[in-house]
């Protein structure tokens, strides 16, 4: 599965975090690529943005392609080990 979103630096992250708080967004989807690079799947993303953190992970990420300096679209592949969705 692909995790898709806009790539940017920590300065843009802080700006968006404030913007989302000001707009009272309940949901936003950030993932860190490295300490100075993040992906935001809030505006541009797919169903993979709903994957949550887990203390018992069932997936791993692999970076594919190259990020675009100053922003752009980026792909991460998620490799699932067991269930993707769980419903009780």
From TrEMBL:
<dbReference type="GO" id="GO:0032259">
    <property type="term" value="P:methylation"/>
</dbReference>
<keyword id="KW-1133">Transmembrane helix</keyword>
<dbReference type="Pfam" id="PF00856">
    <property type="entry name" value="SET"/>
</dbReference>
<keyword id="KW-0472">Membrane</keyword>
<protein>
    <submittedName>
        <fullName>Histone-lysine N-methyltransferase SETD2</fullName>
    </submittedName>
</protein>
<dbReference type="InterPro" id="IPR046341">
    <property type="entry name" value="SET_dom_sf"/>
</dbReference>
<dbReference type="GO" id="GO:0046975">
    <property type="term" value="F:histone H3K36 methyltransferase activity"/>
</dbReference>
<keyword id="KW-0489">Methyltransferase</keyword>
<feature type="domain" description="SET">
    <location>
        <begin position="2"/>
        <end position="63"/>
    </location>
</feature>
<feature type="transmembrane region" description="Helical">
    <location>
        <begin position="67"/>
        <end position="86"/>
    </location>
</feature>
<dbReference type="InterPro" id="IPR001214">
    <property type="entry name" value="SET_dom"/>
</dbReference>
<keyword id="KW-0812">Transmembrane</keyword>
<keyword id="KW-0808">Transferase</keyword>
<dbReference type="InterPro" id="IPR042294">
    <property type="entry name" value="SETD2_animal"/>
</dbReference>
């Amino acid at each position: 599965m692909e995790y898709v979103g806009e790539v940017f630096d920590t300065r843009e992250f802080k700006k968006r975090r404030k913007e989302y708080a000001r707009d009272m967004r309940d949901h936003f989807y950030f993932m860190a690529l490295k300490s100075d690079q993040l992906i935001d799947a809030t505006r541009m993303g797919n169903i993979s943005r709903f994957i949550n953190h887990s203390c018992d992970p069932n997936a791993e990420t692999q970076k594919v392609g190259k990020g675009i300096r100053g922003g752009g679209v980026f792909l991460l592949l998620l490799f699932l080990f067991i269930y993707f969705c769980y419903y009780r």
